[in-house]
Specification:
By secondary structure, the chain is mainly alpha-helical. Helix content is 74%, strand content 0%. It has one domain. It has helices at residues 3-15, 20-25, 29-41, 47-50, 52-67, 75-86.
Length: 87
């Protein structure tokens, strides 16, 4: 997955939190890793100048991500699972 694909995937699933349990249950580890990595990186502050609407939406979604407890996902463990799946 390219950096751009990871970013788009992270944004999509932050804005659609109800889909995160589905990708976890379906063992879509590569996608879940992209979401967790994006969330851990935070929302780029420069987006507040270039796309304030999206910035607000992503900040609110990131807060909900933490409230739902998704910040407890272990990125390294998910990446390991993703590597095993792609072999």
């Amino acid at each position: 997955m390219t950096a751009r694909e990871k970013e788009n995937t992270g944004r999509h699933y932050l804005l659609h939190l109800n889909e995160i349990p589905k990708i976890w249950h379906q063992k879509e580890w590569i996608i879940l890793a992209a979401v967790v990595e994006y969330a851990q990186g935070g929302i780029p502050p420069e987006m507040s100048k270039t796309d304030p609407y999206m910035y607000r939406a992503l900040c609110a979604a990131l807060a909900e991500y933490h409230i739902h407890g998704y910040d407890q996902f272990n990125l390294e463990a998910i990446k390991t699972l993703a590597e095993k799946t792609t072999r």
